[in-house]
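Narrative summary of target 7.
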Amino acid sequence: MNAQPIDTGPAGEECLNVAEFYRGATVLVTGGTGFIGKVLVEKLLRCFDVKKIVLLIRRKGNASPADRLHRMLEGPIFDTLRSTVPDAKDRLRRVVAMDSAFECENIVDDVDKAKLCNEVQIIFHVMASIRFDEELDDAIAMNVTATRRLYELASAMADLRSIVHVSTFYSNCDKKHIAERIYDDVPYGGLEHIQHFLKGLEAPEKQQLTKLVLGTMPNTYVFTKKCAESMIKSTFSELPIGVFRPPIVISSYREPEPGWVDCFHGATGLWVPMVLGKTIWYFGEPDCKPFMTPVDQTVAGMIAAGCDIYRRRSLILPVEKPLPVYNYAFAENAFPFRDYVGLVSSGLANPVDRLLSRIRVRISPWRIFPKILLWLMTFQARVADEVLAWFGKRGSNVKILSAISSLADAVEYFRCRMWTTENGNVRRMLALLSRDDAERLEFDGDRIDWKDYHKSYAKGIARELMRKNLQRQQHRKSAMAKSS
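Modeled conformation, tokenized:
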């Protein structure tokens, strides 16, 4: 990697010069086939002159890591790259897949380990289990143990410059104010004691212990992300590492195209019924203002953080090196849930749907009304599935409604609470961007025009629903062809 030229920002601080930092770099990404990971890979390829991007990918069924990478690179998220960058084919060839098994102590084989240790300069650890109902020991294995194994490997990398550990803003959601620091108040004497308690327990006993361990935290996902941060501070603080905490990540604002999304986790999934013209009410506090961020702006902040971590490590004396934390949350531009329905419905194509959606979908402060409506809708869904069964067709109305209801229950905690925060490290990065980098990287959440953003939000959900429906039809035809 080339040395960065010295430009200065506010108070004489050295500018980040992000483009120069990534020029000629080999970047390692975990979770690269996921929602955030895909956008990260696309952005690095399209806007930065990286030498190579290595994705640690596990085998999935009969699909090898190379197969999964090939399918990903052929996906629509890379269409903008293919249509706007003259050497797009060459850039796509810079992405390579490496077989990994995070359930093993050695996550890659010896040959690949040697390659990584000799080549990698920057790491983005995006991989995580984001299931809110994951068993505690399984969530620990993915979100803590796998992280430890990766950073043990990173400790042997000869030219490592920066590690961006992607956590979540809600890793400390049991606190009303979340500062840009690591909270290491893991209960019961720490994670090792908790793991010791879990050994040998039967499933019902584990469930009882999990409730005690979580305390006021809502799920195993946020708890284990907190544990991972604490583990990093205690074990890997000597590495050039920083913790990046995005809140609820939703579909893209502008890149690679407005409204892009490829999954329906979290907040995005709750608005699928509106796009389909269905009726559903959610329990929540209408005046609560959630922290949300488009995925493209989240990725831009992560990329800038990678450079900032390196800059901090280079400038600060060893005895004064704090582990940097980036709370990627913006309070000034947040909007209340009561405005959410109107914002989402503004992107619906049909004027009648836009009008009716304000009745069909609501955030209600009274739990009884969403419950009554859910009961009626469940009855209707069962009748519809029975009618389809009479005609020899398989109905999925109950299954879809159950999935949406489970998702609504899982994120209810976040619809009923508000937090205060500080994001000085993020704002400092924004102030230190060079002019060219500021054009490449838009991640100032206070400048988002949410009305403009939501013009594409519902359209993006509709596009993804159509794509998934087409995939199911193709799989069904393929299965029928094989059976015949």
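The mean pLDDT is 90.
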